[in-house]
Amino acid sequence: MLRKITLAALATAALTIAPALAAGTPSPSNAEAYILWPPDGAVIVGGKLWVRMGLRNMGVAPKGVEMPNVGHHHLLVDTELSTDGQIPSDRNHLHFGAGETEARIELPPGKHTLQLLLGDHDHKPHDPPVHSRKITITVP
């Protein structure tokens, strides 16, 4: 049996579906990313350091792996958290698309902020976003 669908009905259906498509990959409401090391307020002599990344109630997988409740870390350096759209890839947004949970980075002298943001298979924040609190470190 064929049904006639009007243009108005199609437009209404598209508006109903669009918000669901715009939302990021679902994440558990109790998921949390956190920085294991360095601690907030650390002084890093020489500027070379290991960042150790943690995740609760989700798993870590390489980019491109589309599974429920997994993602990969992005380290935000000296920038504000933004959970809209795709996570940029630049000197302030470091991608760990191989599923790394630790990385060696080097920072110039000064005060720096670090924050983790979990990205899905397509480098987009989850819904709700999974991120750590922002910490501050100093390189003398």
TrEMBL record:
Residues 1-22 form the signal peptide. InterPro entries: DUF4399. Residues 51-139 form the DUF4399 domain. It comes from the Bacteria. It holds the Pfam family DUF4399. Keywords: Signal. This is DUF4399 domain-containing protein.
